[in-house]
Design brief:
75% of the residues lie in helices and 1% in strands. It is mainly alpha-helical. It has one domain (2-362): Farnesyl Diphosphate Synthase, CATH 1.10.600. Helix 9 runs parallel beside helix 16.
């Protein structure tokens, strides 16, 4: 599967490079910041694994598509959209690094420092970062418009894309508010956030876009959407775990940032529910603190393990993965042709989808 993702990243990046090179030449009419932001967006986007772009190709293949170059603009659009969301996310979370490099708004803050701009350099950086994210999103819309599909398919693509990205925005609002709430957030609410901030956007949306471009019908899209949601929940819970147990190199930003931001994750909810009163008082002091030490993080990790929180979550994720495999069996297994278009789902594409499920159980970055 990693070979598949790598190959699709190369294709997505090639399409994105060609498109942004063309756009840089065109939008410079609005001023010199145009080519500057386009160059930064390309570098920023290229630093990721480009999983969403790869899943557009996978969705295309799962729906029986054969001319995968038709999916390239949609794959590149997903990656520009991801950059848009991450740029804004870094500003909201006060994260200075992303993928081992300075986040976009911090790059612009440094420009203000170096050039001696008047006023608050950090405000300048954040304002420029917001503009950069906005530009990335509208360029993504422009990319979708270049997809070689008929007018009706284009309307379906844009309707799905716009609706899902709007839902991400609502979910992000809940994520921000959860970070400052004084009461506890129940698991149902956390899972709802995971479903719409991560699951549908990261997995369902690209699979559906690819399948739609290949002529997939609404029934197939619904099934792929459901599979994507469940994979996304596995992905997000694993991401929360890595955010505490991983290293700066693994996550591309400082370990412990979720603790400082007091992110209301499933891991945190389970930890607080299981912790004895004395330990809980310490946890309440650490989560939401202005900073945490390596010792603090090690203490939290040890407590998560000693209370069995991590082991229990691993068991639940394994059960969820098994349920996703059953969904895939029903959709692409023997006798599943009524649920998918004729000829849909090559053996290779279905195998990659299965590997994607298993990979998210064990990934370490």
């Amino acid at each position: 599967m990693l070979d598949y993702l790598s190959a699709q990243k190369d294709r997505t990046l090639s399409c994105l490079q060609d498109f942004l090179t063309e756009r840089a030449a065109l939008i410079k009419v609005a001023g010199s910041w145009g080519p500057d932001v386009v160059k930064r967006l390309l570098d920023y986007s290229a630093g990721g694994k480009m999983i969403r772009g790869a899943l557009v190709y996978l969705g295309y293949e799962l729906a029986g598509g054969t001319e995968s170059s038709r999916a390239a603009p949609l794959a590149a659009a997903m990656e520009l959209t991801q950059s848009f969301l991450l740029i804004h996310d870094d500003i909201m979370d006060h994260d200075h690094t992303r993928r081992g490099k300075l986040s976009i708004h911090r790059q612009y803050t440094e420009i203000a420092w170096k050039r001696g701009y008047r006023g608050n350099s950090e405000h300048f950086g954040e304002a420029m970062g917001i503009c950069s994210g906005d530009i990335a999103f509208f360029l993504a819309c422009r990319l979708i418009a270049t997809a070689p599909v008929d007018a009706q398919t284009y309307r379906v693509l844009m309707n799905c894309f716009a609706e899902e990205v709007a839902l991400v925005g609502v979910a992000q609002m809940h994520d921000v508010s959860n970070g400052v709430r004084l009461d506890e957030v129940d698991e149902a609410e956390i899972l709802q956030l995971y479903r719409y901030k991560t699951g549908r956007y990261t997995f369902s949306l690209p699979l559906i876009l690819g399948a739609t471009a290949a002529g997939g019908d609404a029934q197939l899209n619904d099934q792929l959407g459901a599979i994507g949601e469940e994979i996304g929940i596995i992905f997000q819970i694993r991401d929360d775990e890595i955010g505490i147990f991983g290293s700066d190199d693994q996550i591309g930003k400082p370990v412990g940032s979720d603790i400082i931001e007091d992110k209301k994750t499933i891991v945190r909810a389970r930890l607080f529910a299981a912790a004895p009163a004395a330990e809980r008082a310490t946890l309440e002091r650490l989560f939401g603190a202005e900073s945490v030490t390596r010792h603090d993080i090690d203490y939290i990790c040890a407590l998560i393990d000693s209370l069995g929180v991590r082991a229990q979550l691993h068991q639940e994720l394994a059960s969820l993965a098994e349920a996703v495999h059953l969904r895939i069996d029903r959709l692409f297994g023997a006798g599943a042709t009524q649920a998918a278009p004729a000829g849909a789902g090559s053996d290779e594409a279905v195998a990659v989808l299965r590997q994607l499920v298993d990979y998210n159980l064990i990934r370490d970055r």
